[in-house]
Amino acid sequence: MKTILRGAVVIAMLLATTAWANPEPTADDAARASVQKFLEQIEYKTGEIEIGDDLAKLDVPESFRYVGPEDAAKILRLWGNPPGDDPPLGILFPAGKTPASDDSWAVVIEWSGDGHVKDDDAEKIDYAELLKDMQESAREASKERTRDGYEAIELVGWATAPRYDKTTHKMYWAKDLTFGGAPAHVLNYNIRILGRKGVLVLKAVAGLDQLNEIEAVVPQILAMVDFKEGNRYTDFKPDSDKVAAYGLAALVAGGIAAKAGLFKGLIVMVLAAKKFIILGVIALIAAIKKFMGRNRATT
C-alpha cells in the first residue's frame, strides 16, 4: 500500500508540475477557484469564545481573528501538515492576514490532556544540554518524515531559549528550523499554559524574520487565553487528579514521546509562494484520488 501511495505522490507531483508549466487554462484554474472559495468561506470570530469542552476561554480583540476547529484542521492540511490524532482547538490570525497571505503567521491552539505537569524541575533544567538531545532526536525523526513523503527537517537551535514563569505557570520558547534544505528558516514559537489536568498548547508558526513581531504581541496573546474556573493549575486535586508522566524538560522536548518522535506534533506553515504551493497541494490530492481510483478498478 505504501508503495502505491508513493507512486501516486510522484505521479501527482509530475502532473502538478506540468499544469504549472502550461500557460493555457487547466485544472489549475479550478484549483485556484477552490482555494479562493475556501478562503472566502472561513468563519473568523472575535470577542469571548469558549474552546474545548468547557475547558478554556479566549477574549479575542479586534487586532486578531479566531478560526474554529473544523476550518483550522483544513488550513493545517493545506499547509502540508500530516493529519493529527486530535483536531486543533482553533487558530488565531493577526487581523488582515489569511492562510494564503505572503506575510502571514498564525497561532495554533491545541490541548494535551496527559495530566497535571509538575514544575519541580523548573530550576534544574540545562537547556543547552537539552537542545543537543533534541537535535539528535530531530535527525532521527526527520528520517521517518522523509520515508512518509514529507520534507526533511533540521532543528538549528533556539530562537528564544525556554523560560518558565512559576507564578502564572506559563512557559515560552522558540525553535529555529529548516525544511527540505530551504534557505529560509522557520520559526516555531511555543507557549504552554499549565492547567489542572493538562496543558494548553499554543504554537506560533512563522518565518524567523518575524520573531520580533511575534514576541512583541506574546503578552497580548497570553492575555487572551485562560482556563475556566475549575481547570486552572491551582485547582489541582492531588488525591484524585492524574499527574503527567513527565515534567517541564520533556514538555519542551515534545512531551513523553520526545525521544521517539520530536516532530510528531509540529505545525508547519508554507513561508514562500504560499498561494502556489497550496494550489499544488490541492492538485496533488486530486491526482492521488484519481490514481487510486484507477488502481482500485484494476485490482
Overview of this protein structure:
This protein is of the alpha+beta class. The chain has 2 domains: about 1-40 and about 270-299, no CATH class; about 45-270, Protein Transport Mog1p, Chain A. About 35% of the residues lie in helices and about 25% in strands. The chain contains 7 helices and 11 strands. It has an 8-stranded antiparallel sheet, with helices on one face. A 3-stranded antiparallel sheet has the order 2-3-11. Strand 9 and strand 10 form a beta hairpin. Helix 2 (about 25-40) packs across helix 7 (about 275-295). The longest helix has 24 residues, at about 275-295. The two termini are about 10 Å apart. Mean pLDDT is about 80; it is low at about 1-20, about 255-265 and about 270-299.
What descriptors fit this protein?
single chain; 299 residues; alpha+beta; Protein Transport Mog1p, Chain A; 2 domains; eight-stranded antiparallel beta sheet; three-stranded antiparallel beta sheet; 37% helix; disordered N terminus; disordered C terminus
